[in-house]
Amino acid sequence: MEEEFWTQPDRAIIKAYDKTDQAILSHRPDLGQGGSTAVTAILVNGSQLWVANIGDSRSVLLKGGDVFQMTTDHDPNADRSSIENKGGFVSNMPGDVPRVNGQLAVARAFGDRNLKSHLRSDPDIQVKEIDHTAELLILASDGLWKVMNNNEAVEIAKRSKDPQVAAKQLTAEALKRESKDDISCIVVRFKAQ
């Protein structure tokens, strides 16, 4: 698969996500019934940023002073037709969040064996040219994005030149805003070319 990455990175990423999903499903006795969302970023030759995701983990890039969302949030409403074509349904019960079969608030995920026949685990992939104007990249789980928008997160991350400190500040701010979901965060700082 490594060789394929250099010729067809998108196909290699899709295969890696599929292998990850299969590994999680095969370890079900150890891992339980649940699943996971994911966001990954790969910088190739310092000039091409490949970002992939499933679920509601998100990546945001600050480049040339502009904020770019590099991922797609896989809301069940957005994939409703795919879910329904596979025999599932989307419901806002319980609560006010759309859920696959009334259970899962994302339409794509690793694992989740009991809903697998209705879910997808193939990633959305975006590629962006990286040059001297690229400043930072944020990769985070939905616990961050449920309580702040992309611009707010970038403004907080810009305050610190140390990416580890910036990630801790984002996490602390999400907790301060009473996020009720998991909060995982990585900040990447690009060096000027």
Strand and helix map with partners:
Layout: H1 2-7, H2 9-26, H3 28-31, E1 35-36, E2 38-44, E3 48-54, E4 58-63, E5 66-69, H4 80-85, E6 90-91, E7 99-100, E8 110-111, E9 124-129, E10 134-140, H5 142-145, H6 150-158, H7 163-176, E11 185-189
Antiparallel strand pairs: 1-8, 2-3, 3-9, 4-5, 4-10, 6-7, 10-11
Helix pairs in contact: 6-7
Structure write-up:
It is a single chain. The radius of gyration is 17 Å and the shape is globular. The chain contains 7 helices and 11 strands. By secondary structure, the chain is α+β, with helices and mostly antiparallel strands. Strand 2 (38-44) and strand 3 form a beta hairpin. Helix 6 (150-158) packs across helix 7 (163-176). The two termini are 30 Å apart. It has a 4-stranded antiparallel beta sheet. The protein has a single domain (2-189), classed as Phosphatase 2c, domain 1 (4-Layer Sandwich), CATH 3.60.40. It has helices at 2-7, 9-26, 28-31, 80-85, 142-145, 150-158, 163-176; strands at 35-36, 38-44, 48-54, 58-63, 66-69, 90-91, 99-100, 110-111, 124-129, 134-140, 185-189. The mean pLDDT is 91. Keywords: Hydrolase, Magnesium, Manganese, Metal-binding, Protein phosphatase.
